[in-house]
Amino acid sequence: MTAGPPAEAVDRSTRAAVVTLYRLTAGHRGAIAVAAVLTLAGSALGLAQPLVARHAVDASGRGQAVWPLLGLLGALFVAEAATGSVGRFLLERMGEGVVRQLRLGLVDRLLRLEMREYDRHRGADLVSRVTADTTLLREVVSQSLVDLVTGGIVAVGAVVLMAWIDPLLLLLVTLTVAVAAGVVTSLLKGIRCASEHMQHAVGAIAADLERALGALPMVRVHRAEARETARVGARVQEAHDAGVRTAKLASVMSPAVELAVQGSFLVVLVVGGLRVGGRTGSLGDLVAFLLYASYLVLPLSSVFRAVGLVQRGMGAHQRVEQALRLPVEHTGPSVPAARARARTRTRPEAPAAAGRAALALRDVRFGYAPDRPVLRGVSFTVAPRRQVALVGPSGAGKSTVFALVAGFYEPDAGTVLFDGRPAAELGRDACRRRIAVVDQNTHVVHGTLRENIAYAVPDAPDAEIRRVVELARLEEVVDRLPGGLDAVLGERGSTLSGGERQRVALARALLARPALLLLDEPTSHLDAINEAALTTVMKDVARECALLVIAHRLSTVRHADHIVVLDRGRTTGQGRHEELLATSPLYRELASGQMLRPGGGRSAGRAPSPS
């Protein structure tokens, strides 16, 4: 599912937003300080210009030379532009650095989340937090912070000088600006809420589009393009509505600011002109005050716009913070070694070989939801260099056993042991170093064939890669592809067949030389010839490491050293093929469905049933 707008109470004030912005700039405070000094210097140079202009006007009225003052005015203008440009560059660069730090933190977090979190959140929505949300934050940090800093400094300086020149005119300007400030404040909360909904809708667009593109062959075959377009279109409409609401509020805010600034300028012009006409003020003072009033137009407008953008950005920041708070896997030991050993001694006694087993499960219980148990007490052992098969009807818990062995989840009760040591004592990293997995949904990523095979061991020598290519029977694929091992595979390995992708995954797993290899329905995409070849490969691999195989085709595992029968989350039978045919009704039923004779061959004249 996609996480909606946060339900918890959030401080939406501008002050809280600015505090959040300041917190985001941790590690960049030095650049901010230098930029602030340059900005302050540039603002001081800018604020000095109306005073020079005032003197130039008064000097001209007295018939004095004004060229030196005009030269000084030009120099001040150039110096202000230079210092302002450097300060703005530093702040922009700081904004890029903040967003880079956020993106790296998000990527690292998302790749380490607990597996349950991927069940609760849609992948594309999480990706949009790294891309779309942080892009909006970049604009906020790099632009809004610039505008708030420069606009605030200039506005404060201008107000101080305006108060020095004419307090009465300043009071009139303050009253008109206060009206605009009241309008802006009343709109900020709505802008932030609309922005949050828009960002969530954008994430939902990415999630629904990925859903459709990831199953594009199914969509095309079932002529569901229009339905999927309508589904994504509904999300697009949500984003459109939220964006229109944001634009509507912003469109009210901008004219309010402009009218207040223009109104204050007209008030100053009229009242100040009357006072000059009545000889209660000088023309130079009026010119200087008007320049400061015009000087306020840009910074005040930029400050108000920046405040609105900050509120929009806080919606994106809220989604980023939600992602950064999601729980991650704990890869180290979860309990001290002594406690782990004590826990294993309280469990029912395992077979004598368990202490030397590559893998052992002792009375393991687990459920994805508290009230829906999947495993209800599973116990079995995988001895070193032996092939153990897990069989059972769909929903028996076979894939869940693999998920627990791979450390994707932790058992609710019972113990998983590697080499006689509890997984909780070893930690996920240590456990995963001992295993490799060939999933039924084989993962082939965009890149070369060599990169896919060497994914687990990026620096593997060519001799090792050639060894696993031969073991996985990939020689024909290497010869067929232009470039051989350096051929670029398409997205999700689209240039390979299902069976070829499975063999690539097998080669990748073997390259890591695991102590335990997990194979999930390894023959599901193979024809009869390649299935027979893989059976031979599995025998060869079993000389190097232990194998735990999930199989629906019993022909794949009838020669396994040990077979474990699962039914409704319980171990209902264990033994070799012939033993289980005699002792396990469920296994006998499964074997009958696969048309296997007790001797291990297929019934004459019958074709194999589809898996």
Automatic annotation (TrEMBL):
It is a multi-pass membrane protein. Residues 33-312 form the ABC transmembrane type-1 domain. The chain crosses the membrane at residues 31-53, 65-91, 145-164, 170-188, 255-274, 286-310. Keywords: ATP-binding, Cell membrane, Membrane, Nucleotide-binding, Transmembrane, Transmembrane helix, Transport. Its main location: membrane. Gene3D superfamilies: ABC transporter type 1, transmembrane domain (1.20.1560.10), P-loop containing nucleotide triphosphate hydrolases (3.40.50.300). GO terms for molecular function: ABC-type oligopeptide transporter activity; ATP binding; ATP hydrolysis activity. It comes from the Bacteria. The keyword Transmembrane helix applies. It holds the Pfam family ABC_membrane. The keyword Nucleotide-binding applies. Residues 359-593 form the ABC transporter domain. InterPro entries: AAA+_ATPase (IPR003593), ABC1_TM_dom (IPR011527), ABC1_TM_sf (IPR036640), ABC_transporter-like_ATP-bd (IPR003439), ABC_transporter-like_CS (IPR017871), P-loop_NTPase (IPR027417), Type_1_exporter (IPR039421). One of its GO terms (cellular component) is plasma membrane. It is found in: Cell membrane. Belongs to the ABC transporter superfamily. Lipid exporter (TC 3.A.1.106) family. This is ATP-binding cassette subfamily B protein/ATP-binding cassette subfamily C protein. It comes from Streptomyces griseomycini.
